[in-house]
């Protein structure tokens, strides 16, 4: 008999008690998910992440004492919480924070008015090591904040160590293509694409797909709004 996969442990970080209660109720009612703690500010989120070692932190951006961006940076840069993934919650009027969150190490983001199904799927994707970056988000937000009013493009970071094929794969990841779409575009098998991505993560020192997107734009490999 195959053993059931363990529940995904989720830490909720939001300064609004009602929002935390809503998320907790959803997770409690959903098989496969377990809320393990609640934080009402960024500093508490960091402390609880170190103490509880959740699989995923559902992180609000604007919180007192320490915002969600700084909390994400501290969680993702600490050896104590290296396996903890952060999923940022945002609203469209806070789009300017998305790039900073990804730079800080977040594995993706969701809009606060996402449906219950989208939230649960997002948590599961991030827990599995995937990035929650829809193609339109990748194009509209990440490209915008790296090329139009965002941080200046940095010099290429280690791209000399990747192969030409890996460059092609990285460029397509940055444009928001899924593994299946990359395989079709390059006429490769799904397994081959996964192998290329694994090698890219290792060679570029990226923790997940989101960080590969950041590297692709910051290195200049992909230009904002390029087709």
Automatic annotation (TrEMBL):
Species this chain originates from: Actinoplanes aureus
Matching InterPro entries: CheY-like_superfamily, NreC/VraR/RcsB-like_REC, Sig_transdc_resp-reg_C-effctor, Sig_transdc_resp-reg_receiver, Tscrpt_reg_LuxR_C, WalR-like
Signal sequence, start to end: none
The Response regulatory domain, residue ranges: 9-127
Stated name of the protein: Response regulator transcription factor
GO BP, one annotated term: regulation of DNA-templated transcription
Residues where 4-aspartylphosphate is found: 60
Record keywords, A-Z: DNA-binding, Phosphoprotein, Transcription, Transcription regulation
Boundaries of every HTH luxR-type domain copy: 155-220
GO molecular function terms noted in the UniProt entry: DNA binding
Domain of life: Bacteria
